[in-house]
Write a structure and sequence with these properties.
The chain has about 375 residues and is of the alpha/beta class. The protein contains twelve helices and 15 strands. The strands form three sheets. Strands 8-7-6-5-4-3-10-9 form an eight-stranded parallel β-sheet. Strands 11-12-13-14-15 form a five-stranded mixed β-sheet. α3 runs parallel beside α4. The chain binds iron/sulfur cluster. Iron/sulfur cluster binds next to loops.
Length: about 375
């Protein structure tokens, strides 16, 4: 992320972490913060799983995790990996054989805690499989499944216990000369997760996978995640995020992106700035924004659109957006392009017209970007 010298209060100084690869996606270092989700289909149903991965990727997921609890899942994984547009993380719980099978099937990363898979020989076998097949590993500490000896030592799940658990798993990988790992220390309690993440961020330079686990349904989980992840990201902690919701994985991706967009850490698609509306509105703001959100889902170019009910805030917001519409005036509103008043448009044609303007602007931005990239380096 570039730093802003004019508005320094917008700067986020990211924690310095090592960079690893999850397939083709870099995680950590100066790589963009990646967005992940997880499928909830039966993994052995290849068609359903690939369809869900594709939908998540279309919504912007950079990486998708797939659970591989049994042999039929790891068998299906090979075809899933072959058809997936994004790298796949195989979620392993305890069974070392599933980890080896997943690595052989082409998983880009294994989510596995090396301390939970048994003997040193088994750990060595898994690490060898990961090395042989170019897999990275995510250590996933969870407050709900901390090791017994740590619960006995600390009495209950607490940040110190979670950090200690993470460091124990890290040590096992390092003792086996394996360094392509990232780590998460998740909890459903925002305070516990935030404190554990701060602790682990201080204790290691491994890239960090952020998440508030079992955050809840779409609304409550979004809010919990925005508070937990938002605060950590604002502190500069976090290299990849997964929002866990009891909802469609596509919703998790959208929420993950919105959190990153709110902090200026990633930009994708149309950022709609809209007012809550009130009796002054010159058109139905809420219905219009709902319709535009759907109609503009296909735009991936980062750009901004202001949809404001009246002239109280409309012209001011339009100044700072690529396309703007402000209501007011006998069934018509003002269209703004690049911050300047452009022309009036009737309310009943305005949705189609705005979609057209946004598509045009997106094509312009893409063309300018392509021309910039084609310029020879000085
Ligand atoms: S911008 Fe106008 S319509 Fe929108 S909330 Fe404010 S006063 Fe109401």
């Amino acid at each position: 992320m570039s730093l802003n010298s004019i508005r320094p209060w917008r700067n986020i100084y990211r924690r310095k972490s090592r960079q690893i690869m999850v397939g083709s996606v870099p995680v950590g270092g100066d790589a963009p913060i990646s967005v992940q989700t997880m499928t909830n289909t039966d993994t052995s149903d290849v068609a359903a799983t690939v369809a869900q991965i594709q939908a998540a990727a279309d919504a912007g997921a950079d990486i998708v995790r797939v659970s591989t609890p049994d042999e039929s899942s790891t068998r299906a994984l090979k075809q899933i990996v072959a058809e997936s547009p994004v790298p796949i993380v195989a979620d392993i719980h305890f069974h070392y054989k599933r980890a080896i099978e997943a690595a052989e099937a082409g998983a880009a990363c294994l989510r596995i805690n090396p301390g939970n898979i048994g003997s040193k020989d088994r750990v060595r076998e898994v690490i060898r499989a990961a090395k042989d097949h170019g897999c990275s590993i995510r250590i996933g500490v969870n407050a709900g499944s901390l090791e017994k000896h740590l619960l006995e030592k600390y009495g209950e799940p607490c940040p110190e216990a979670m950090v200690e658990s993470g460091l124990e798993h890290i040590r096992i990988l390092q003792d086996n000369d394996f360094h392509e790992f990232k780590i998460s220390v998740k909890a459903s309690d925002v305070f516990l997760a935030a404190a554990a993440y701060q602790g682990i961020a201080d204790a290691t330079d491994a890239p960090i996978h952020l998440g508030i686990t079992e955050a809840g349904g779409l609304t409550s989980g979004t809010i919990k995640s925005a508070i937990g992840l938002g605060n950590l990201l604002w502190m500069g902690i976090g290299d990849t995020v997964r929002v866990s919701l009891s909802a469609d994985p596509v919703e998790e991706v959208k929420v993950g992106y919105e959190i990153l967009k709110s902090l200026g850490l990633r930009h994708r698609g149309v950022n709609i700035i809209s007012c809550p509306s009130c009796a002054r509105q010159g058109f139905d703001v809420i219905k219009t924004v709902e319709a535009l959100e759907q109609r503009l889902e296909h735009i991936k170019t980062p750009m901004s659109l202001s949809i404001i009910g009246c002239v109280v805030n409309g012209p001011g917001e339009a100044l700072m957006t690529d396309v703007g519409f402000t209501g007011g005036g006998a069934g018509t509103g003002m269209v703004y392009l690049a911050g300047k008043q452009s022309h009036r448009m009737s309310n009943d044609q305005m949705i189609d017209h705005i979609v057209e303007q946004v598509e045009k602007k997106a094509a312009e931005i893409d063309a300018a970007e392509a021309a910039r990239e084609a310029e020879p380096a000085e």
